[in-house]
Amino acid sequence: MNPEKRQAFFEQLRANNPNPETELEYSSPFELLIAVLLSAQATDISVNKGTRELFKIANTPQALLDLGEAGVKPFIQHIGLFNAKGRHIQETCHLLVGQYGGEVPQVREDLESLPGVGRKTANVILNTAFGHPTMAVDTHIFRVSNRTGLAPGKDVVKVEEQLLKRIPKEFLQDAHHWLILHGRYTCKARNPECEQCIVEPLCSFKQKTGKGNVRGPI
Predict the structure, then answer these.
(1) pTM
(2) Which of 58, 98, 93 is nearest to 75 (CA)?
(3) Angle at the Cα of 141 (from 153 to 129), degrees rounded to 5?
């Protein structure tokens, strides 16, 4: 995808959704951190169902520590991998209280030192909570980037690097949300809705649907 197409690609996404937001519910960087930790291999809907009630009772590192792993479990046991996530939450809260004064750090290396926080999660926090122009490449963004020709790459780090180089600066802050929502609702893995896609004319996918073409993942 050449620079002119990339500019038009994001202009279309912005026109369709000028102020994109995460679908995770949160009211502080800490709440977002906990929600993102819980969201691995889980839907935002299932995470919101749990955190909506959990955060009414405990929404600070110390409060979650006081609640304990057993106290957190009833709120998250419907979420996949809840036992491991419950441990990570307690370990993370312990570090936040002990090393960071109960605040979520704004430095990537510090974020990635927290249990359960990898590069993708750190990028989400930096971008969504603190306004950094980072790119958290999940399965949706990886698929959209490769399928459309926006930023092809064989691994998530390569795709992230390509996106940061290729996305015009005016779109970088919101690009993460546009791409993840596009992959979640339009450019789906097995049944992409090409006939309803606002950026279809700019996309290089060779198996577009709606015109008798084959459907299937990249």
Answers:
(1) 0.88
(2) 58
(3) 125
Type of residue numbered 123: N
Per 3-state DSSP, the chain is made up of helix, strand and coil in percentages (nearest 5) of 60, 0, 40
Q: Which of 120, 165, 169, 188 is catalytic?
A: 120
Active-site residue, from 5, 56, 110, 138: 138
62-106 pLDDT per residue, tens? 999 999 999 999 999 999 889 999 999 999 999 999 999 999 999
Angle CA 52–56–60, to nearest 5 = 105
- Distance between CA atoms of residues 101 and 118, nearest Å: 21
How does residue 22 score in pLDDT terms, banded at 50, 70 and 90?
very high
How far is Cα 137 from Cα 102, in angstroms, rounded to an integer? 27
64 exposure class (CB count in 10 Å sphere: 0-12, 13-18, 19+) = buried
Active site residue 110: no
| Catalytic residue flag (residue 56) | no
Tokens linked to 123:
């990028």
